[in-house]
Amino acid sequence: MDGFVKTQGDLYITIRSRDLTSTSQGTFNNSGRFNLFSNIIAEEDEILAVELVSATIPNSFYNLSNNNNNNTITFSETGFNETTLTIPSGSYSILELSDKIKELMEAESLSNMNGLTYTFSYDEIDNLLNIKNSNPTVKNTTFNFNGDNTCRRFLGFSKKSHTINTTNGITSDRAVDITDTRNSIFIRLPNLSNNKIIESSSGKYSNIIAQIPVVLGRNSFFTFDPPTTFKCELIQKQINSIDVLITYQEESNGVNFENADWEINLMISFFKAPKLIREERKKHQTIQLELQNKVDTYYKNLYQNIQDQEDLNNYFQNNLSQLKV
């Protein structure tokens, strides 16, 4: 926020996931609410800004799982119908995943009386995977990678069918990607509104305040400590609580930390509001005051009408009693 003048000292807020009121599902531990003991309030001529100063994140989330919608492989062999295998959730390297798929496919082939064996060869230099079967000229193998929940991106294959029908087997037609495009996580503050960040998945204003690259060191912690932070101007002037949500790029696709804890550090800053914002706020205050005055006048008149009606009823009742006498 270059050109903006600070009006008072910053507030540094440290947040640990274990201290939050959890809003996560199951073992995700990716969201929660931090209730402030004292509200953060900007003056009428101030605006608030928030930034993610640093974070410590556990690499405890799986790169292949049902949550990630990428844990199946569908194939068929000559003489047998197509079958879909579910791969156990976990954090795999390409070699470990290849070994697991080989194990599952060979067990399925044996149960179908084909008895094929499979060879997975990964070329680290080209970042490509080659798959062969033991009798391709007699028994073809077709991989159906058209589904939405396959592990094809792990193995480096495009969204179509690939058939092993020669001794050369099949080779990846795109780069092997063991992150399955989940190479970053996103820190979101859902209850702090802004109109400064737009994300490509929706084309709309977003609650993201930081994108954190995922370091491929499973079962360890990685830190986010950017040399330059992004200060996000907030719309509201008051903060009572802070909601934190950690997702992949799609907001609905939460990171499953498997109950591991994380920490983030936020900075709240106060800046002199630009003239345009101050004038807009004054205009809103004037409108609100006018509306409030109209509401007050309405209820005052309503009360007076009720009082007048009661007085009129009492008058008639008293005079009616005298007439009867």
Please identify the top-level CATH class of the largest domain.
Mainly Beta
Give the averaged pLDDT, no decimals: 89
Q: Helical element count? A: 3
Helix content: 10-25%
Structural class: alpha+beta
How many angstroms separate the termini? 85 Å
Low-confidence stretches: none
Number of DSSP E strands: 17
CATH T-level topology of the largest domain: Jelly Rolls
Largest sheet: 5 strands, antiparallel
Number of domains: 3
Backbone shape: elongated
CATH architecture of the largest domain: Sandwich
> Over the alpha carbons, how many angstroms does the gyration radius reach?
32 Å
Sum this structure up briefly.
With 325 residues, the protein is α+β, with helices and mostly antiparallel strands. The protein has helices spanning 94-111, 152-155, 275-324; strands spanning 6-16, 21-22, 31-41, 46-58, 72-77, 83-86, 118-123, 128-133, 141-144, 161-164, 170-171, 184-188, 208-213, 221-224, 232-233, 238-247, 263-272. Strands 1, 4, 14, 15 and 17 form a five-stranded antiparallel β-sheet that branches.
Structure description:
The protein is α+β, with helices and mostly antiparallel strands. It has three domains: 6-63 and 182-273, Jelly Rolls, CATH 2.60.120; 72-171, no CATH class; 275-325. It is 22% helix and 33% strand. The protein has helices at residues 94-111, 152-155, 275-324; strands at 6-16, 21-22, 31-41, 46-58, 72-77, 83-86, 118-123, 128-133, 141-144, 161-164, 170-171, 184-188, 208-213, 221-224, 232-233, 238-247, 263-272. The strands form four sheets. Strands 1, 4, 14, 15 and 17 form a five-stranded antiparallel beta sheet that branches. A five-stranded antiparallel beta sheet has the order 2-3-16-12-13, with no helix packed on it. The protein has a four-stranded antiparallel beta sheet with strand order 6-5-9-10, covered by helices on one side. The longest helix has 50 residues, at 275-324.
